[in-house]
């Protein structure tokens, strides 16, 4: 997939493409020192990572302005979201080197993003909500943990109306079944992925511990 193909697929602006091109250049530069993406996926950056991240926006509330991305790693989906929408993204990443990369990438892309260098469990919800100007409207996490553990990390940081968007692989249904042992899931949807027929996006709301 080329940048032009990505623009056609997402209907994003030329400015967004320029931000993502700056991001791609930094990934290629830093990849030599830090494993930001699996090396074999680097040639497929625009489809495997950028489009895979961008598709989450289709399922976020239209008025979303506060987005929280957990375990951001190389910036997926958080920095891609920041490149594509007018809101503010907060990224939580405990790895110092990856956090340094995220900050440099956010500056180079000129996006509205703040990087919190700490473990997710160490994030104070009140401090986070103050920094964000309210509870996150969306919480995302990609390739971070099994769903039942992921909910345990994310739910304390959420507000009553927060939407959770978690990309998952072929075991999404099994993860939902396992999560229901620990959590009440009143609104759980398994949505198709645009980038992988075996993958899906889990959209959750209102979870409560059993």
TrEMBL record:
HAMAP family for the chain: 16SrRNA_methyltr_G
Keyword Transcription applies: no
Known EC number: 2.1.1.170
Recorded GO MF terms: rRNA (guanine-N7-)-methyltransferase activity
Keyword Endoplasmic reticulum: no
Origin: domain of life: Bacteria
Record localization: Cytoplasm
InterPro entries from the UniProt entry: rRNA_ssu_MeTfrase_G, SAM-dependent_MTases_sf
One term under GO cellular component: cytosol
Family: Belongs to the methyltransferase superfamily. RNA methyltransferase RsmG family.
Catalytic activity: guanosine(527) in 16S rRNA + S-adenosyl-L-methionine = N(7)-methylguanosine(527) in 16S rRNA + S-adenosyl-L-homocysteine
Protein name: Ribosomal RNA small subunit methyltransferase G
Keywords: Cytoplasm, Methyltransferase, rRNA processing, S-adenosyl-L-methionine, Transferase
Ligand binding (S-adenosyl-L-methionine): 71, 76, 120-121, 142
Gene3D superfamilies given in the database record: Vaccinia Virus protein VP39
Main function: Specifically methylates the N7 position of guanine in position 527 of 16S rRNA.
